[in-house]
Design a protein that fits this description.
alpha/beta, 4-stranded mixed beta sheet, UDP-N-acetylmuramoyl-L-alanine:D-glutamate ligase, nucleotide-binding, 11 helices, 5-stranded parallel beta sheet
């Protein structure tokens, strides 16, 4: 199996469940509060590891009260963190998540994630070259991607970018990415383009993979747009579903599966993730996926 490196954010997530959305200036009672592990980089690493991937996480956390909790967590999840960046004088990243009728709103404070930058990746560049598949997101500085992606592309590495939170990316970066996995709302934000959705997808055949939640996944095969249906599931919490898809997609690639089979594997993993609360706590294990795939 090919080795996977995830380079990205690590957070502690703070959840509030509510049956009423507050207006500006209004105070309402929440139904439940809980904490969990998050950050899109950590999410993808845990998702891939639970599905049997050989995963190393590159990222930054604060030298604070959350440090040992996170180190123990990643060890339990079998995620290699030997190259983790521990930063003094700054807090670990945090996300504040409001859950309402199975959907979510999220506010992120980057904290130590700001230090997963070009300087850090220059320090670990030689170690990074030992990996085959690379997963990125946009909760860390864009400057890091602009430095590292051209180097990885030159070495023939597989590069997957989940462009969230969505920002416009320079064409020089887009051209060097192997797979781009925005959701249906992020596409126009990420790609500077005046064309409609189908025309944009046609310009990035088998590279632009659009995730559409309960409507599955779309991509262009060079001739037309292909739509792969989602597996029906009762959504309890959609937080981390996209990260689960990307992590599962990477594992399937690492195992050498055909492209469309990799997409379906990601779709099935995402469908399991939404049935439980929490970004990482709901992510499926390999045995769960094997049972689901046997059911068809």
């Amino acid at each position: 199996m090919k080795k996977i490196a995830v380079i990205g954010s690590i957070n502690i997530d703070y959840f509030v469940e509510c049956s009423t959305l507050p207006k500006f200036g209004e105070t309402v009672f929440g139904d439940n509060f809980f904490m969990n592990f998050g950050g899109k980089g950590a999410n993808q690493a845990v998702a891939a590891s639970r599905l049997g991937g050989d995963v190393t996480l590159f990222g930054s956390i604060g030298n604070d009260e959350q440090k040992q909790v996170l180190l123990n967590h990643f060890k339990a999840e079998n995620v290699n963190i030997e190259h983790l960046n521990i930063v003094d004088g700054v807090s670990t990243g945090a996300a504040f998540i409001q859950l309402y009728k199975g959907d979510n709103r999220i506010i992120i404070t980057p904290g130590a994630n700001q230090y997963t930058n070009g300087l850090y990746t220059k320090q670990v560049k030689d170690q990074l070259m030992n990996y085959d598949i690379f997963l990125f997101q946009l909760e860390t500085p864009i400057s890091m991607l602009e430095y590292l992606i051209p180097l990885l592309h030159k070495e023939g590495k597989t590069i997957i970018l989940d462009p969230a939170p969505a920002v416009k990316l320079p064409e020089d970066v887009l051209s060097k990415i192997s797979y781009l996995t925005p959701n249906e709302y992020e596409v126009q934000e990420v790609i500077s383009h005046s064309s409609n959705e189908e025309q944009i997808m046609a310009e990035y055949p088998q590279k632009l993979i659009m995730t559409c939640g309960k409507n599955g996944v779309k991509y262009h095969n060079g001739e037309r747009v292909i739509r792969l249906s989602a597996r029906m599931a009762e959504a309890v919490d959609t937080t981390g579903a996209g990260d689960t898809f990307t992590g599962a997609f990477a594992v399937a690639l690492a195992e050498g599966k055909p492209f469309e089979e990799c997409l379906r594997y990601g779709i099935f993993a995402g469908s399991l993730a939404v049935t439980k609360k929490g970004a990482q706590s709901g992510m499926p294990y390999k045995y769960e996926m094997e049972e689901l795939l046997q059911e068809g």
